[in-house]
Amino acid sequence: MVSSIQSEVGTQRKVITELPGPKSRALHERRKAVVSAGLTNGFPIYIERADGAILVDADGNQILDLGSGIAVTTIGHAVPELIEAVSAQVAAFTHTCFMVTPYESYVEVCEELATLTPGTYAKTSALFNSGSEAVENAVKVARLATGRQAIVVFDHAYHGRTNLTMALTAKNMPYKDRFGPFAPEIYRVPMSYPFLDELSGAEAAAIAIKEIETQVGAKNVAALLIEPIQGEGGFIVPADGFLPALSEWTTQNGVVFIADEIQSGFCRTGDWFAVDHEGVVPDLVTTAKGLAGGMPLAGLTGRAELMNAVHEGGLGGTYGGNPVAAAAALATIKTLRDRNLVARAREIGDTLLTALHSLQQDVAIIGDVRGRGAMVAMELTQPGTKTPNAAAAKSIVNYCNQQGVIVLACGTYGNVIRLLPPLVISDEQLADGLSVLGAAVRAAS
Ligand code: PLZ
């Protein structure tokens, strides 16, 4: 069963119809009648199978995946260990509800989270279904444990689409527009954005801290919530020293430091977690996406004294830490370790940064190239300026899609192209993707 799925998928990009092809177009018509128009599809090709870094659509096109379903399939598609673990768990039992009758795999995932997340202190975890839910629960825990209410977030932040996490998210369109009223006691301060603010990490942190102290008051702040490398907001890598300075300030002021590692975690950046790069140790960490190889699972992990401050029954949910998702997480973590994918992420990062920096020399629309490990982006600008060029980003995504390569745009101004390849991508596949991307950038210049 496992091998027959895999043998149907080649290892190379192969476009045999126009994209989307006729079968995908027909499916898309069906979709329009029954799926809410509030959901969009970046690239409406309908996927039937996948393996490694290749997706196969309904028309038989083999598509190179440089997006990993937004940083989820970090270990690649159709990994045999994951298929076996999930299949065995489905056969054993699919659900009991951890709050009713527990099972070992939930405990094992929490043991792994305690070991892998930064910090040597005693940690406990709770498991949820989505990143948004993990972030919501981080806020619940921080408020309860500190007895304070204010939550500090940053410009360009993305934390989800539920009511509380919409309030935590910075960008209005498409995430928040007309969906209010939003949750109160959320305060937004400037993010370190070296390309645009040209500040050192220490300078940017001083500005953020001054705003918090003057506009909120340190003693009112329950938590400071930050993506160590911002994802949806534009793959913004803060200047060195920014995160350590904020972390130090939170420690001095009894504020809970929450790292949202939902997009940046689980080996994506060439460390297990993006905060590891500067040795920052958060009090709470949210994880999802790459944690479970495509099965819906999220984690909230942190200092036992915070996590255990919650009254009995105060955390939960019907499906959180579902046994099938937990089995997938254990197989994913094992695969990340066994294949040393943390090292592979660094190699991929070197290749991507070298290629994009050299492309930047040839064209006038790449304002900035940045990222770490297999989380790399280029910010597109009007030639010779820092003015956002969203039209270029759009045309690059379209060009790549037409050639059978998935790349994703992001950024507050819609002018960033991000690369999030599965870490099992081969050097040949990566070179192929980069050559298509290079042609797309030249065409847009
Ligand atoms: N925190 C840092 O990146 C999800 C969102 C895609 P959920 N990012 C992709 C979209 O347009 O909805 C994300 C994230 C960070 C939280 C989340 C939310 O995770 O699993 O989508 O709820």
Could you give a quick summary of the protein structure above?
By secondary structure, the chain is α/β, with parallel strands linked by helices. The chain has helices spanning 2-7, 22-34, 68-71, 80-92, 104-116, 131-146, 163-168, 194-197, 201-215, 242-252, 304-307, 323-338, 341-362, 390-402, 427-444, and strands at residues 47-51, 54-57, 62-65, 123-128, 150-154, 186-189, 221-226, 256-260, 284-287, 298-303, 366-372, 375-380, 405-406, 408-410, 416-419.
CATH fold label of the largest domain: Aspartate Aminotransferase, domain 2
**Which architecture name of the largest domain does CATH use?**
3-Layer(aba) Sandwich
| Fraction of residues in helix | 25-40%
Mean pLDDT: 97
How many helices does DSSP assign?
A: 15
Distance between the termini: 47 Å
Structural class: alpha/beta
How many structural domains in the coordinates? 2
Radius of gyration: 21 Å
Major pleated sheet: 7 strands, mixed
CATH class of the largest domain: Alpha Beta
The hetero molecules present are: ligand PLZ
The strand line-up of the biggest sheet is: 4-10-9-8-7-5-6
Tell me the total number of β-strands: 15
* Estimated share of beta-strand residues: 15-25%
Query: Which blocks of ≥5 consecutive residues have pLDDT under 50?
Result: 1-6
* Overall morphology: globular
SSE order: HHEEEHHHEHEHEHHEHEEEHHHEEHEEEH
CATH superfamily of the largest domain: Type I PLP-dependent aspartate aminotransferase-like (Major domain)
